[in-house]
Structure prediction request, 445 residues.
Amino acid sequence: MADSDFGKKPTKCPYCSSTSQKNTLCTCSYKTRLSPVLVVEMSQTSSIGHSDVSVSSERRNEQVFTKNKTSAKDLPSQTSSVERKASQQQWGRGNFTEVKVPHIRMDNGAAIQEIYTFGRILGKGSFGVVIEATNKETETKWAIKKVNKEKAGSSAVKLLEREVDILKSVRHEHIIHLEQVFETPTKMYLVMELCEDGELKKVLERKGHFSENEARWIIQSLASAIAYLHNNDIVHRDLKLENIMVKSSFIDANNEMNVNIKVTDFGLAVRKHGGSEAMLQTTCGTPMYMAPEVINAHDYSQQCDIWSIGVIMYIVLCGEPPFMASSEEKLFELIRKGELRFDGPVWDSISDCAKSVLKQLMKVDPAHRITAKELLDNQWLTPTAYEETFPVTSKKGNTDVLDMSRLLPAALKGELEKPSVTSSHGKATKYTAKSAVLPRTKKKL
Ligand code: ADP
Prediction:
């Protein structure tokens, strides 16, 4: 890690305040420095639907370590329908268990180098760099986002603090996990779970588009994460392909890609005070994914995220955005009209049910737009309901025969069906998708 502070000066121990030689850590804390009693701040995380969450940071390190070592367990193909159901149900508020996210304030970043070995750069963000790092003790790999607060400026730091604040308070299997935060007077280090397979956008660019089944699991995971956020009065406001990371992925026996996604980048996320009825006003987000009510500078609600899920689902299915124009003004005009087109050969093989979901996600009037919870319960995401509603999908002679195997999670299909070839051609589409808080802001949140 290119950090000019590292290892150059004697280090003041963040725990006992004694000064040690450069590149050495005070022995008071080496073994226990992550213990909750030693850190300056421990924030509370409301964790929902997890049975293993009431553990210290060290304990969680062990758990993640085990998980990484046996990474097959982490793969979505091994996710049983019961586990998927549990994931779907994770949106609820009940059963809170507290987990602490250590926020360690220190004079300089030297101690971090004692804990982690820094490796490749995973990516560069608007205000900092994200680097792969391995915990020397546990050998667990993490992604550490390092931001130079001075260089980033006060408004960027504000966004970062908002991101940290929200990430500390959430825990969901499809939301990026923040393990701990280190902060010096000039820098902030966010230790996050590592998403080895990078951005979903890049995976899509390589594939062209996902099959309907592949898209189903992506949207189910996304819906579960967003339902969880909305149920806890958090609105993401910048959902887009670039903000969905892929922790792991693999091709199953049916030649379908299973991706384990994580929602990231909570810089524009906001907590709604006043519950689900509260309205927001700041015009922000990324134009291509912005809901009509946001670009119209109307009061809007968490439903803006649902529109963005619609845009993501459309792109994931066909490889192109639903609305494209030569200027932002024209793009906004198309979004305001919200006329979805399903032209082109890709759409011929996509079910009416999926198209119906897209129309419900991208209803121009947010009051008529499906909610995240309703999306999770939608028949397209729940094969059982689909089976009851649409018992016919293919024809054999004069008899309509249901091919239910297409609707099962890949892992459950097993021998049920012959391997089918996933169409994965098509040219990758390049998107320019920059987040912005637009000048139309009526009122600061
Ligand atoms: P931005 O500032 O644009 O929101 P970030 O600083 O959060 O972006 O991330 C920059 C890049 O680092 C991302 O585009 C992504 O490729 C990579 N990255 C971010 N978080 C992770 C992670 N948890 N695991 C792997 N790569 C990551």
